[in-house]
């Protein structure tokens, strides 16, 4: 048996004895070594320098890998801005889209446009080896629950082929999971009570954050405003036509977030995965807004003749539009991800958001003709 294990063990025993003092350890080491012979030094030197360096370089490598991202739903209201935000921050982005034309548009934004289908892994599996962050912003209108959970499983399978690497998966949920809770302030640690349209989401959120296959993060945006505008665009278009139906009564409220402010949070979560993994983040502006006030601001701007009627919701989507949103305490996103609301809320930004939506809608019309 060589000397050095004995030397090391003995020295460790001694630092234990002298309360972990490093000087004491070094002193004992030298004395013991002088007694046990010079053979041990090179080995000890090698171990003490080589192993820490090796584990540190692995660690650095892991974080360097994060600069490559695959975005599912890269041309949707959220995904488009997410892909652009990563690109703007210097990361390499692959954006999956169904049409070759849209893939081409992504290329214009310095995003690698890949033609494929979220629900067909053979169209995107080959990209997994090139990325370390996978983001789902896609939404399947006909079968959202099944499609989203299938995707989580397929990504988990795909990343298993690279057991030596660590992947990040960011899933897009939404604040509708809190349901109707007007006047109550909620945080991520409060229980959810989803409205029917998103009843399936909390289970998927758990699947993502508890996964052993990847570092999972869940982002829950509020109603997305700005640019092409998602549901907000529906309000513009109804008011333009002269009549808008709202649900329940004039006391409904919504939590919103600008698509660019939201997109920055995906980048922050990926860059700070050491803090974000296994976490859920509510990403909304710091104030909720009165839905009727928002619609009245649109009416004043777009079509003062337009009228509003209130109806009882008769389907899950109408229930979602007639939501009495709770108030959000967003300190988690602020403190861990550095969330900042840079853009105006729905009422204050109405003119700017309307103009952007209209320009996008016109482009769409031109393109159809
Ligand atoms: C993936 O990366 C390899 C080299 O790292 C590259 O040759 C290949 O083109 C990349 N694949 C795509 C789809 O960009
Ligand atoms: C929402 O705004 C409408 C007018 O735009 C007002 O009548 C109503 O009282 C407001 N509701 C709340 C809860 O603030």
From TrEMBL:
Stretches assigned to the NAD-dependent epimerase/dehydratase domain: 69-283
Protein origin, superkingdom: Eukaryota
Keyword flag Lipid metabolism: no
Membrane-spanning segments: 21-51
Gene3D superfamilies xref list: NAD(P)-binding Rossmann-like Domain
UniProt xrefs under SUPFAM superfamilies: NAD(P)-binding Rossmann-fold domains
Keywords: Membrane, Transmembrane, Transmembrane helix
MF (Gene Ontology): aldehyde dehydrogenase (NAD+) activity
Protein known as: NAD-dependent epimerase/dehydratase domain-containing protein
């Amino acid at each position: 048996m060589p000397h050095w294990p004995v030397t090391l063990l003995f020295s460790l025993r001694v630092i234990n004895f002298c309360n972990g003092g490093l000087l004491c350890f070094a002193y004992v080491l030298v004395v013991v070594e002088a007694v046990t012979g010079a053979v041990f030094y090179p080995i000890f030197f090698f171990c003490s320098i080589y192993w820490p360096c090796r584990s540190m370089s692995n660690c650095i490598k892991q974080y360097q890998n994060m600069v490559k991202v695959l975005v599912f739903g890269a041309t949707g209201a959220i995904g488009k801005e997410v892909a652009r935000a990563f690109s703007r921050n210097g990361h390499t982005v692959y954006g999956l889209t169904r049409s070759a034309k849209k893939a081409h548009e992504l290329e214009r934004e310095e995003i690698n446009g890949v033609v494929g289908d979220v629900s067909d892994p053979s169209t995107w599996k080959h990209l997994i080896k090139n990325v370390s962050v996978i983001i789902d912003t896609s939404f399947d209108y006909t079968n959202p629950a099944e499609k989203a959970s299938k995707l989580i499983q397929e990504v988990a399978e795909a990343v298993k082929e690279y057991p030596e690497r660590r992947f990040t998966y960011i899933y897009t949920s939404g604040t509708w999971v809190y349901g109707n809770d007007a006047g109550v302030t909620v945080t991520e640690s409060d229980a959810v009570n989803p409205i029917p349209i998103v009843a399936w989401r909390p289970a998927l959120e758990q699947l993502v954050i508890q996964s052993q296959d990847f570092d999972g993060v869940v982002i829950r945006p509020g109603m997305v405003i700005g640019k092409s505008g998602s549901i907000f665009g529906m309000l513009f278009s109804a008011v333009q036509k002269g009549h808008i139906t709202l649900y329940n009564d004039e006391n409904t409220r919504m939590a919103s977030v600008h698509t660019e402010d939201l997109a920055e949070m995906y980048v922050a979560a990926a860059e700070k995965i050491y803090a974000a993994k296994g976490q859920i983040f509510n990403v909304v502006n710091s104030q909720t807004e009165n839905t009727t006030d928002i619609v009245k601001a649109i009416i004043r701007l777009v079509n003062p003749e337009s009228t509003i009627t209130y109806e009882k919701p008769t389907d899950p989507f109408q229930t979602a539009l007639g939501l009495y949103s709770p108030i959000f305490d967003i300190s988690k996103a602020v403190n861990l991800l550095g969330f900042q609301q840079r853009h105006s809320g729905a009422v204050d930004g109405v003119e700017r958001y309307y103009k952007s939506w209209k320009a996008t809608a016109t482009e769409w019309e031109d393109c159809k003709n």
